Amino acid sequence: MLQYLANGLVVGSIIALAAIGLSLVYAILNLINFSHGDFLTFGAYMALLFNLAWSLHPWQTLPLVFILGAALGLALEVLVWRRMRRLRAGVVSRIVASIGLALALRNLLVFAFGAEPQAYRAPVQMAVPLGSLPVKVTPDQIWIFFVSLLAVLGFHLLLRHTGIGRSMRALADNVELAWVSGVPVDKVILWVWILGGGFAAIAGAMYAMTRPIHPELGWFLLLPMFAAIIVGGTGNPYGAILGGFLIGIVQEVSVLFIPSEYKIAVGFLAMIIALLVFPRGLLGREVLR
Amino acid sequence: MIGYFIGFLTNVAIFAIFVLGLNLQFGFTGLLNFGHVAFLALGAYTMALLVTELGWSLAAASLAALLVTGLASLLIALPALRLRDEYLAMVTIGFSEIVRMILNNESWTGGPRGMGGYGDPFAALSLTPDQLRLAILILSLAVLVLTYLFLEYAVRSPWGRVLKAIREDEEAARSLGKDTRRYKLQSLVIGAVIAGVAGILLAFFFRYINPRMFLPLQTFAAWTMMVVGGTGRNAGVILGTVLYFAVYSLTQMWTGTGIAGLSGAQVGALRVAAIGLLLVLMMMFRPQGLLGRKEELTLER
Q: Is A54 exposed, middle or buried (0-12, 13-18, 19+ CB in 10 A)?
């Protein structure tokens, strides 16, 4: 039981970190970004690229991966999303466009790296007992947990103590109100993509330390991320973080009761139950129509 | 060559039925169904399972398959339609991935290998393989025409006008005393059943079904066909389906085995990437599609 809880905390920390961007983009740009999962895949392949080309250890690639993820987010904002806002594209047009982007991004990665599963070139790690607990984890898993936690903490400090962070919270809470109060919307949105893209990319690179890298790596995490932002409550980035940990734990612990192939289904069921029982989510705003 | 053409037309006819179902849900009612392929799969697999496992007749199994498909859509629509529109998108795509997960992992569905041996509706006629392919083409075209006529009638009826009213402004429709949730449920279920019909035809056509035929890509391809042809126009989505398959088949014929030093797999990836970019560009510059009417569109909400 404790073992599954530990696995859940590791996966949950990845989902939490990655879901921050999905949640912010949904709250501020009113966009369900179906291409968000492919940011994770992108991050994993970029880490693989540096790992193979320059013999960097996967951990050493993370700063670069963050920058590339942020750059990808910025590029798509400037090329696609900002233009679509200027053209007054509706919610649906933007969702369909995000699906198009997801297909394009994923298949360009297939084009460049092939569809076969790959792995980092790094020493294989043995799982070691964690103190006196009946739990075995690899050093990488411990690092994933703490690096994710550190990134989330940094994000928290940014939200609380910087002007951009305050504007971000105001926008996530109520876009119209923040806009009429003079919040620099376009500038904040750029920061949303920098942080959301960067976090998603390093989350993907770290996730790939625990399993093979393949073109659908991030796509399979998209459903748990949706579940996380709904369970945690949309419109609140802290909800996404809390929801991420919860979904990760629920998924891993469910392995005790049902075949592990259905992990993702469990997160999805949690989402449906959340929608039925408390559609606001744990920390969210009103969503009933 | 004739054989290839028959296969092409059958594919187009079956997919056009599939996309018409989506067009009722989204084009006319504004429902964001991103898990449409689940209903295709449910139609095909339920029919196949009832025939092979329980020995039902093809007709009875097909009717039961449509019932199952409709009930499944009702089951996911009931919770999702209480919430904001976008939630339906997440719930349906999740549902379709779970259906595929079950098909892929259970032994009674044949797992990744899939299943066959359920026969076809023309077994009594003892046709040659070529005649059989032609018969299935004619059946698919007939079902397509019926579906088209039914939908054209439906969307022009008072019922269809309420759907459009919901699409344009649900609050206004509700303030006129329409039970909008009921209409949305009906639209979603009918669209899903139409997808189930397409699934059954698909199973007849390929004579074998497996989970790889029901990837999320099928849903996105259906969206592409609808969006290219013209959302909310039944004739438009049929045009979109024809165009999609024409472009797809031609590029496959020319480049399927590789071109200019690229392997076939790489060209395949580029082709899907191009579909993705096409979707993005359409959404940016012509969201109403080729035949769509800009003034009659949900996309601008």
A: exposed
